[in-house]
């Protein structure tokens, strides 16, 4: 999925909000905005939004002098993760269809995202997703394909989404699960450290994709990871960034799980902002 003109105001707002969140110095906030505006003006419109996001946040890293500018925010949500896990694991245990409830949990965790301009209320938004109707639901196809699959590649997105991902992984049955994270800190996306904090390594093999963008951009991924993609029977792709990077992937069974958080993605999927998506890429 390429960048559209409508992406530009969102990129600008991201730069402003990042400065407000991370910096007390008005001069540095202004420097972030100026450099990001220059980047956006000269940006290749054919790149994906995650690639553009990577470039914008590289500016933020440089000006703040921090390799992981959002670490305090990630630490806060990682500290709350066990609480989320216990609460929603309990809800899944009481559900008539545990797998479907776990899918809802996984999508619910996607609400915490500092890479999309705008406000959210984690508690309220998570609870809403747990009962919200799907704009797309390819659950039947997912259950069918999963039953025939031996290996699952699970593409992670944000913190504390990792704790919700763990709930779904634990409901996938006796499968060979590979959990892929970013190869370097980018916004509040999950890294190996975050996956270990959530206990993912106890139930799946944790790997880095090679991509340092807020999405699994195949041209940035390592050769080893591309081989994992090739060998995997089914792919679970979490979040908007992974959808933007992979929506046109061919030759694989991919299930996108996300909340539509911006106008461009909502329009691309023919849904409304705030809708929840469980979409099979090879749907008929």
List keywords for this structure.
7 strands; alpha/beta; 284 residues; Rossmann fold; seven-stranded mixed sheet; 2 domains
Q: How would you summarize the topology of this molecule?
A:
Elements: H1 7-22, H2 26-41, H3 49-64, H4 71-93, H5 98-108, H6 122-131, E1 134-137, H7 139-147, E2 151-155, H8 161-169, E3 176-181, H9 192-197, E4 205-208, H10 223-231, E5 234-238, H11 240-246, E6 254-259, H12 263-269, E7 276-280
Parallel strand pairs: 1-7, 2-3, 2-5, 3-4, 5-6
Antiparallel strand pairs: 6-7
Give an overview of the whole structure:
The chain is an alpha/beta fold and 284 residues long. The chain contains 12 helices and 7 strands. Helix 11 (240-246) links the parallel strand 5 and strand 6 (254-259). The longest helix is centred in the N-terminal third of the chain and has 23 residues, at 71-93.
The secondary-structure class comes to: alpha/beta
Question: How far apart lie the N and C ends?
Answer: 20 Å
Q: What is the mean pLDDT?
A: 91
**Overall tally of domains:** 2
CATH architecture of the largest domain, by name, is 3-Layer(aba) Sandwich
Radius of gyration, taken over Cα atoms and rounded to an integer in Å: 18 Å
CATH superfamily of the largest domain: Uncharacterised protein PF01937, DUF89, domain 3
Instruction: State the helix count.
Output: 12
State the share of residues found in helices, binned by percent.
Answer: 40-55%
Summarize the structure in short:
The chain has 284 residues and is α/β, with parallel strands linked by helices. It is built from twelve helices and seven strands.
